[in-house]
Amino acid sequence: MSHPLFHRGRRLRSSAQIRDMVRDTAPLLAEDLIMPYFVVETDDQSFRKEISAMPGQYQLSLGELEKQVEKAVDNGLKSVILFGIPAQKDEKASGAYAEDGIVQEAVRRLKHRWPDLYVITDVCLCEYMSHGHCGVLTPGGVVLNDPTLPLLAKTAVSHAAAGADMVAPSDMMDGRVAAIRAALDEAGLVMVPIMSYAVKYASAFYGPFREAAESAPSCGDRKAYQMDPGNRREALIEALADVEEGADALIVKPAGPYLDILREVRDAVDLPLCAYQVSGEYSMIRAAGLNGWINEEAVMLESLLGMKRAGARMLITYFSETLLEKRLVR
Ligand code: PBG
User: Fold this and answer.
1) Over the stretch 239-249, which tens digit does the pLDDT of each residue have?
2) pTM above threshold 0.90
3) Per the domain annotation, does 293 fall within a domain?
4) 49: CA distance to ligand 1 center in Å?
5) What are the two backbone dihedrals, phi and then psi, of residue 51, each rounded to the nearest 5 degrees?
């Protein structure tokens, strides 16, 4: 099937979970929260390792992921986003689109156990590439755009085929939303929405994540594909391009230092909007909290309230579990 010329508005109406998640209203609710998890491919089913730069966050085996999610679901968690750490990395990111890859297995586990849990997958290659870049690399260290697109499309299709409710491409290659949409449709997965990291800056705030996901580039940086932090109007170009290509929802990332961008995108685009409170934002609030320098719970809530005020509806935040456990959201 080719890329359809009509709007599939029903993708985001297909279940009570996603309707709750995209409804256009304000206060902090359990259904706003999307909790990220780092799943490790390992034979050691009791593997659980705290991420030193993100106290309270862990790399988890499949078995430990299930335990962790069980507690969170009992506390009211409705949605997760998964990141994988494969046993092997190579130059073509094979683990990203392997049928029995770590994210694919994690999706199957979670959807089997909790069919109503809304499972989103991060679609990127950096965790699976030996060099840690988000796309195919030339010997000279250039990340090639177009040759990366089929790999991203394969990855998204394999996630959706494993049962993912939604795919979220975070790689910042040009044209990837169209490529992923076409591949999903071709595979008959027409109802799987794409939430694209449309506006993603080359940010130092991702530092702790790269320890968590073991995805730091071994050479260079991501500035040749992620956005320049000095650019505001470019955010609208990126957002509108992804709308054109068929995205169903958009992410702005990081969130806290880019609230102006969130607001601009909210005013310019009518798709549901998600703010990603990234690892560095989490770590700074946590560190100050652990030192007793701030009221951590209050700051946590205020930081997220700011994102909603700026126009975000969904919030990807490492505080999701805590907010629910401490009954800080409705
Ligand atoms: C993968 C990806 C990254 C994050 C989400 N997806 C890292 C990066 O782009 O370097 C960052 C998330 C965070 O910092 O919490 N490309």
Assistant:
1) 999 999 999 99
2) yes
3) no
4) 19
5) -85, 120
